[in-house]
Amino acid sequence: MHMVTEAQSAGGAEQAMFGTKIMALADRLAQWSEVPDGLTCTYLSPAHCSVAAEIRDLMRQAGLTADIDAIANVVGRHAADDPRAPALILASHYDTVRNAGKYDGRLGVLVALVVAEHLRRLGRKLPFHLDVIAFSEEEGVRFASSFLGSSAVAGRFDPSLLDRRLLISNREAVLGVRALLAGEGIFAGLSSGAILVAARRVAREMPGSTIVALLPDGGWKYLSAGIFSANLDVVEEELDSQVTAW
Predict the structure, then answer these.
(1) Which residue, 5, 66, 81, 173, could crosslink 59 as a Cys pair with Cβ 3.0–4.6 Å?
(2) What are the chain's domains?
(3) What values do phi and psi take at 171, rounded to 5?
């Protein structure tokens, strides 16, 4: 109860300081991207490895013990006095989709980090370990599976998942987008087209199975590329300068 009262009595200036620092750290991590315009940081890419190292260093600067595990999760700990104490995990992911926002996933990591740093600054020990984990993979962009980082922490990681990458070209993704519009009337984005192509490919390899494809995004941001109606060669050339293969 004392900690709750202390937090409630904190001044507005201190609370604003937390927010300012979190936003600045998000900007800092966003400097590493696979594309020059926008944010793309997929699992185990050079940008992804740089972000992992930066998060580890930020955790250490905050006073946590921190390292990068075998699946590229970044794990920091504000330790309790009793090494046998249980642990409370605060976690989110740091990988991104293509053309991502800089707060998706990473905001959860950074809020937890700033909280842990504040506890260290106060000299406050908890009756449990406080673990801040930046999961390496959630989005499922590079491989045909998601939540690789958290599944490893939960003891349910399957190494064979890393052999299930599906390579889908921008041309194939565009054809998927057009198929969705023509056949279903769905105004879809490029990632949805790629998902449709991937689902159809998996379905051919698994006859008799039911394949469910989730198509989450709209296609408004690709209008300028003409993916719905322009000449396919022109569209492919335009996209190849913006988006890597799926």
Answers:
(1) 66
(2) 2-163 (3.40.630.10), 170-240 (3.40.50.1100)
(3) -60, -45
